[in-house]
């Protein structure tokens, strides 16, 4: 992974300092003295997906395998930032795929979720990107991704609906064609 340079981190910190001042705060107040730099480092961390490479994440963890009818990894937690408000949204992703002679190391699926979540994002695109990448890298017979997220842009501002959650579903390949296969996936998710 490519890291942001110290110069870039300092530049981001300068912008945070300006924002804090514009909000009416005293940047010299004890609690805020180091906040711009901490915020800049935090922002670099939570957007690290921009500086990662999917092939490096997979790192040769695709294996020849015959026989599985479906592979399902559920409840992979994710944290992201809404690109509209730069507020967090977070939740869980579940991935199912039908192998076509290849499987991927299970931890790599979680890393691929983070690859797309750790950037400015919308949940709909996040779900589609995960599905499309797994389909492409595995040449799977089909992929299904379900993402459920809580969005602070809906909970702490705007409509302020505390109990709302958003679910997005993306399918490809045989999952597009087979309602029975989608049903099998959702039944497996319920266990």
TrEMBL record:
<dbReference type="GO" id="GO:0008270">
    <property type="term" value="F:zinc ion binding"/>
</dbReference>
<comment type="pathway">
    <text>Cofactor biosynthesis; 7,8-dihydroneopterin triphosphate biosynthesis; 7,8-dihydroneopterin triphosphate from GTP: step 1/1.</text>
</comment>
<dbReference type="InterPro" id="IPR018234">
    <property type="entry name" value="GTP_CycHdrlase_I_CS"/>
</dbReference>
<feature type="binding site">
    <location>
        <position position="82"/>
    </location>
    <ligand>
        <name>Zn(2+)</name>
    </ligand>
</feature>
<keyword id="KW-0554">One-carbon metabolism</keyword>
<dbReference type="InterPro" id="IPR020602">
    <property type="entry name" value="GTP_CycHdrlase_I_dom"/>
</dbReference>
<feature type="domain" description="GTP cyclohydrolase I">
    <location>
        <begin position="14"/>
        <end position="188"/>
    </location>
</feature>
<keyword id="KW-0342">GTP-binding</keyword>
<keyword id="KW-0378">Hydrolase</keyword>
<dbReference type="GO" id="GO:0005737">
    <property type="term" value="C:cytoplasm"/>
</dbReference>
<keyword id="KW-0547">Nucleotide-binding</keyword>
<dbReference type="GO" id="GO:0006730">
    <property type="term" value="P:one-carbon metabolic process"/>
</dbReference>
<dbReference type="InterPro" id="IPR001474">
    <property type="entry name" value="GTP_CycHdrlase_I"/>
</dbReference>
<keyword id="KW-0479">Metal-binding</keyword>
<dbReference type="GO" id="GO:0005525">
    <property type="term" value="F:GTP binding"/>
</dbReference>
<dbReference type="InterPro" id="IPR043134">
    <property type="entry name" value="GTP-CH-I_N"/>
</dbReference>
<comment type="similarity">
    <text>Belongs to the GTP cyclohydrolase I family.</text>
</comment>
<dbReference type="Pfam" id="PF01227">
    <property type="entry name" value="GTP_cyclohydroI"/>
</dbReference>
<feature type="binding site">
    <location>
        <position position="153"/>
    </location>
    <ligand>
        <name>Zn(2+)</name>
    </ligand>
</feature>
<dbReference type="GO" id="GO:0046654">
    <property type="term" value="P:tetrahydrofolate biosynthetic process"/>
</dbReference>
<keyword id="KW-0862">Zinc</keyword>
<dbReference type="GO" id="GO:0006729">
    <property type="term" value="P:tetrahydrobiopterin biosynthetic process"/>
</dbReference>
<dbReference type="InterPro" id="IPR043133">
    <property type="entry name" value="GTP-CH-I_C/QueF"/>
</dbReference>
<feature type="binding site">
    <location>
        <position position="85"/>
    </location>
    <ligand>
        <name>Zn(2+)</name>
    </ligand>
</feature>
<protein>
    <recommendedName>
        <fullName>GTP cyclohydrolase 1</fullName>
        <ecNumber>3.5.4.16</ecNumber>
    </recommendedName>
</protein>
<comment type="subunit">
    <text>Homopolymer.</text>
</comment>
<dbReference type="GO" id="GO:0003934">
    <property type="term" value="F:GTP cyclohydrolase I activity"/>
</dbReference>
